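Sanity check record (used in CI):
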Amino acid sequence: MSSPQRKRKEPPLYTLTAGAVAGAIESIVTYPTEYVKTQLQLQDNGAASARNGGVKFKGPIDVLVTTVRTQGFTAIYRGLSALVIGTAAKAGVRFFAFDQFRDMLKDSEGKISAGRSVLAGLGAGMTEAILVVTPTETIKTKLIHDGNLAVPKYQGLVHGVKSIVRAEGFGGVYRGVVPVMARQGANSAVRFGVYATLSDMAKAHIGETTLPATHTFGIGAIAGIVTVYTTMPLDVVKTKMQGLNARQLYRGAFDCAWKVFKNEGVLAFWKGATPRLARLSMSGGIIFSLYESTISLLHRLDDHGPISS
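Expected output for Citrate transporter:
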């Protein structure tokens, strides 16, 4: 996204469309890293996948090699459809909500500070968590976790959703909403805050009001890296809370965090950091640069006739 200091307000249709396009493409490109991260987080000290012979994964590369060898290449894309739909929707909501919160927080001169950009990001993240992220992340996690069973219960996205709702009610797809809100709020606050600060510094350095795509990609990647290490514990708790046996294992988010600390140690809160780092560094670069490109394309198309009315 262009700098959050930008004075021009984009039409809502632009922010929703550009965010959705960027989110969908980003999720397809980076999904294997999300799969690996989720597998590592679901495996606690005593758990192992029944479908890989009961062998625990030793690291990110082992997850990929073992999964492809025992279940085939397509297995690393299990749960993809839920994430693509969810990521397209959440990115659209995120950029739209960020623009709305940013406008609300502008000062009398129409400017917004880096601190207020962080607050706008926090609001955008929590909005997307409630509307989109929690149900899609829950479904994705359960589909991946189910794939580890000797005989998986779910036969794809639609059957999986129906089975979850039938067994757990509508609340079954909203499991872990508190840690998801915390994670998404923190993610967007850090990502937009870092991006806004670095973007403004870069613009001041080169003396331009817009940045080349390479600069946008690089700044977005840096924002993604910072986001990973500052919000990883929230992501681990979120994943644990959305596993197949979460209702039996944890009374809530704080109970889950305590049990992870007690049973697996403090470093367990950064389990899966490497694949998540790979994903969010790529994600940050891809999604911000694609968002900018899509916004520019929409403006060019609008020059030939109104599409935002």
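Confidence is low (pLDDT under 50) at residues 1-7. If this sentence no longer matches the regenerated tokens, the check is flagged for review.
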